[in-house]
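It is worth pausing here to work through a concrete case rather than discussing structure prediction in the abstract. The textbook approach is simple: state the sequence, then state the predicted structure, then interpret. We follow exactly that order.
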Amino acid sequence: MSPDRPDRELTAAQQAGLDIRTADQDRTLATVHELESALAAPAPGNESTWLDEVRGALAVLDDATREEDANAARPDSLLSDIKRNQPILASRIRGVRSQYQHVRDTISALRSDLDRHQDEHDRVDYSDIRQRVAWILDSLRHQRARESDLIYEAYYAAFHADLDRETAGDDPIQPDR
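Step two, the predicted structure:
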């Protein structure tokens, strides 16, 4: 992403970071679908099974987001690369990372709440659990969009700068003066 790269292509390290990010997002998205499926199942009269399925899907989401968060925090991650090469975006990167950590904390808190009440299947408030999970999933989508926008902006800015520098004074449409 260096402005000195005339070929406007990702470096091998940048491509590897992008590949890891894509794999992480694909894995997390699959776990989101699994959780949504568990939540959509009928709960009344099936409390124990419903809660076990939701709890299990939430644990899988917790693991996927933990791994995604760890990969994004690595020094060779895409976000770290942007932070190094475009320091003007450092505060936005901190914001994206902070927001993701907040979502992770919320997932952990919900899991703890559900684990504390695992013997109370008959008193499960399905709508509350569904609402809390909906907030988590909406937050993940919002965070994902912010991160994607940030990455797009960073790479567009880097490549656009290369184009401006390469074409400055060499416009074939304008005659030399």
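Step three, interpretation. Confidence is low (pLDDT under 50) at residues 1-6, 161-177. The chain is about 75% helix and 0% strand.
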